Amino acid sequence: MNLVVIGLSHHASPVEFRERFAFDEAKIPGALQSLRTAGIADEAVVLSTCNRVEIYAATALAPARAFAELKQFLTRWAQAPADADPGGKRSEFEGLSPRLVEPGDELYTLAEPESLRHLFKVACGLDSMVLGETEILGQLKKAYDLAFQHRHTGSRLNKAFQRAFHVAKHVRTETRIQRGSVSVASVAVELAEKIFSSLSGRDVLVIGAGETSEKTARALLSRGARRIVVANRSYDRAVALATELGGRAVSFDNCDAEFQKIDIAVSSTSSPQPILNRARLEPLMKARQQRPLLLIDIAVPRDIDPEVNFLENVYLYNIDDLQAIADEYLSLRRREVARCEQIIAEKVKALLDNTAGQKPAGDVLRAACCVKHPNSLEGA
Amino acid sequence: MAWFSDRHFFLLAVVVYGLSMIYSVFLWRKGFRKDDHVNYFLLLAAFALHTVAMFKRGFSVNHCPINNLYEATLFIAWGIVAACLALGWLPFLRFLGAFASPVLFAIGVFALMPALDPPHGPQPEFSGALISLHAATIMLAYGAFGLGAAAAGMFLTQQHDLKFHKLRAVLSLLPPIQRLDIVTSRLVLAGLVLFTIGLAAGGHLPRPADAVYWTDPKVLWSIFMWAIYLALMVGHRAFPQSGRRFALGVIIAFAFLLLTFWGTNLLSTLHHP
Fold first, then answer.
1. d(C-alpha B159, C-alpha A315), whole Å
2. A184-326 — its CATH code?
3. Domain A2-174 maps to which CATH number in 3.30.460.30, 3.30.70.3550, 3.40.390.10, 3.20.20.70?
4. A290 touching B, CB under 8 A?
5. Is B162 an interface residue toward A (CB < 8 Å)?
């Protein structure tokens, strides 16, 4: 039994191509059933996220034939009408006129041991758009759980995926691949956590309603910030954003009063001139009894005069400062990649040795035949 | 071994404090990014040697070993390192040891000066419950002030890095500056309370007939130090956001204490008849 993987990811295919092959979660069990009914895979897991679509399959077919069948399956899946029931037999897809381009170079196919190595890399976030991100592990676990619940996995995939989750945890503990923040919004949160003992109970003022300031406000909220106040030249836009964030809107011209209450201000207006300078902030700091104030200026040109940073207990960071920190973290993560890959290589070898030790003699011979003559079994 | 006296053990402890100090410089240059346990274990090793030194001295004199200036200084340093190890159990305060080790090394070097440890006479220089209370609380107060100065040093380092956008402000594992400010003020407050108790106990001690209490240099110095620390705490209460000035004040006050402690002690007829 070989563990193979076929898929597309952000590395080689743009989102407008990838999205055609995406699997709706509700339809995945049916797709897995189709794969097994058609004899393409004995066990299967489908991973479908915004950055990748992959099928992991344990198959008795020779890798070359398995890849051809899986590619055909994916193509038919992409071509099927949206309301088609994929839970039926393979013949359901026959007769449909191909209207979409078949995946070509965008598709990657991997057999053992590369398929295992790929699975472990994906689990560790090494193959992600943001190196070391942790969301993919949760998505992988969810995909595995779905297949497991519907009994589409067996000993091969169970062992491989459980080992992948263990490797991800090991890598997270032993390396710094997931350390730090690599987005501007997350860096802003880290800075806040270096100033304030805790973010809970902190109030945040968002000046301007840009995308990055919204992300920063959301990141602060997720770490316990209490209230968001939004000020924007367009009051309607301020209200809309405040409603989304569960906060309140204030008039742009009257936001000085808010400085007495807030602890963090995120600014990203399109003003050509600074909207906050030292002369304006100094009395505001006195009014708020010199409590520490973190100012995040994401705008270009800058919204906040750099002189403001010379005021006591004021900490001003602009977009370049934040990006420099994010880049440093990314650089730290990149330095960890070699170590992570070494750990993965060791774990793959251990898994293969363990699996070979447990294989019946017949399976071992068959695997040996496949390695020597990959096309010797039934033609593709 | 008989020739390996308590002073030898303390000398070894001071050597390890020195190693810890050197390693702390390395940690500082690395921006306190690495939560490594090396410095903690160095301090733990020094603490063990230090404790052995105090026990050996205590057994040899059959008293709690705060009987002369050398022993009192050992006690201060022991208090500081014990507090560092206790607080350093919490990961976010582990770097306190890195800031305290230079202080410990400096105190240790001073303590090893021969003049501070004359041979014991038939009677210890300090004896009695009240004087033990006076000596112990004063030494612990100095320890708390020392640790407060170390925490203030961490505050200033972190605040400077944040102000000037140093990468290590975020990459380091130093705690947030608000927390460091709280830790500093609590340590100074604890020191002030202990100092007050110690001075009050000292005021009730029997004194030589020819000694003039209120003009004794050590008494005047102690009152001055008490007033300085009280002013720091009152100022911090009145202006809670003046973290930087408070931290600087705590460091300068402790530096002044360290530099003038032995001199005033030698000048005092009450403490050095």
1. 9
2. 3.40.50.720
3. 3.30.460.30
4. yes
5. yes
